[in-house]
């Protein structure tokens, strides 16, 4: 008698022990950490570009809106994924990349908020300096 594998087993399959693929139970979803990190990086880069495009108003507004378009989805997706990870409904392996993308998105939102406030203050200062003395 020889020890043969069961007929339904694939003898050429790669071993599962130590494989590079992460095991995710069927009740858990895959994390979106890479997507959230990419959105966070793009929002941080466009937030830094907003400060250099401050002199040209149309270009500055386009970059400002692009920053919001990257940062807002990163914040919503990041918070949703972290909540799913806490509940056990999502793979916890991507927690670090999700947090990094979320932090970058918040930094980008803070930068464009500060730049928006600085732009309004600069506009008000220009009006006050240019006003005729009575």
Query: What is the helix fraction of residues, given as a range?
Result: 55-70%
- Distance between the terminal alpha carbons, to the nearest Å? 111 Å
What series of H and E elements makes up the topology? HHH
What is the typical, i.e. mean, pLDDT? 81
Structural class: mainly alpha
What is the secondary structure topology, with strand pairs?
Layout: H1 33-52, H2 57-87, H3 95-130
Helix pairs in contact: 1-2, 1-3, 2-3
List the defining traits of the structure above.
134 residues, mainly alpha
How would you describe what is shown here?
- This protein is an all-alpha fold and 134 residues long.
- It has a domain of 78 residues.
- Helices cover 65% and strands 0% of the residues.
- It has three helices and no strands.
- Helix 1 runs antiparallel to helix 2, helix 1 runs parallel beside helix 3 and helix 2 packs antiparallel against helix 3.
Task: Kindly summarize this structure in a few lines.
Helix content is 65%, strand content 0%. It is an all-alpha fold.
